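Table 4 source record.
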Amino acid sequence: MKNVQICFDEELLGQIDLIVAKHRSSRSAIVREALRYWMIQKEIQDLEQEWINKLKANPEDLNEAKVWMQAETWVE
């Protein structure tokens, strides 16, 4: 692994240290996990936004998508 320097304000660092103590981990491990989670969420958001933009650009596709979404709804 490569060392990097990151600055945190005192409040955030205190919160990180509480999590570190609670989970018996390290600051580095907590930050790595948080960044991995953030990157996954960002990728999902980007894909969703791309899909929304394509649907807005092609309204007929939006109508077709609505039909499929209604068909997928399970009603008992």
